[in-house]
Amino acid sequence: MILTAALSRTQAGKDVGIVNRIGEWGISLTDSVEDALEQGQPDVWIDFTTPEQVKRNVELAIDAGVRPVVGTSGLTEEEIKQLDERCREQGIGGIIAPNFALGAVLMMVFASKAAKYLPDVEVIEMHHDQKLDAPSGTAMKTAELISREREEKKQGHPEEKETLEGARGGYRDGFRIHSVRLPGLVAHQEVLFGGPGQLLTLRHDSMNRESFMPGVKLAVEEVMNRTGLIYGLENVMDL
Ligand SMILES: NC(=O)C1=CN([C@@H]2O[C@H](COP(=O)(O)OP(=O)(O)OC[C@H]3O[C@@H](n4cnc5c(N)ncnc54)[C@H](OP(=O)(O)O)[C@@H]3O)[C@@H](O)[C@H]2O)C=CC1
Ligand SMILES: O=C(O)C1=N[C@H](C(=O)O)C[C@H](O)C1
After folding, report:
1. Could you say which of 73, 167, 183, 224 is the most buried, measured as most Cβ atoms within 10 Å of its Cβ?
2. How far is CA 48 from CA 8, 171, 174, 209, in A?
């Protein structure tokens, strides 16, 4: 794979390798998506930007015939549908993955299987304190996969009341998602299943950002041979 361009507002004009402390690469960072898409005829647009920026970036990439591989969280279901249609119109593939760590994908898939037999579940996601969105994209995708397998159920005591607002976390499809933000954390998630006399805990930890790279590489290879936008790396893994 060859890096053709790289995007940044704050470091625009500087060499991407120097900024990342891996020696000079001869590629200047740009703050223009249009310029980045024109440099070196790229096949793939890799996006880890912000929830505000990602939609525009991906639309411009697709319109230029460049396949999106997106890690940025925050796209709505409706936006993903629109982007899928745009990819199909252009006859190109794309992947949006809420989490590129293969272990995290396995955790989500295992959680959906467990929910069939242990429908009482809560999700606790833990991230670094610079994260902009809550809950994480991973937690939302976990909830989506769990809901597909879990019988409909409203958990907990029907008369439960919060004496401190938010104490029971966010509510989705009958169960709770809790978001923890602390310096020192990278990206972590526990899925807790409770049953009479038993507790099953599935946990995944990203210790650093290297954890996402094998999944990004897999996605970049896959989009070259597909048409339409795939949501979730589990859809291209042999599970
Ligand atoms: N799916 C996955 O596996 C993963 C997903 N993520 C997601 O990726 C996103 C980014 O997270 P993270 O890496 O922590 O955030 P960072 O703030 O570390 O990185 C965001 C990057 O995008 C650049 N950027 C943002 N907006 C613009 C813009 N308008 N023009 C040019 N460059 C821009 C920033 O550069 P500058 O500030 O210089 O503009 C920066 O380099 C989040 O949504 C996060 O949830 C993160 C890790 C893994
Ligand atoms: O912001 C992050 O760091 C991460 N974001 C993604 C998410 O929202 O789930 C993936 C991973 O958890 C890291």
Report:
1. 73
2. 11, 27, 31, 12
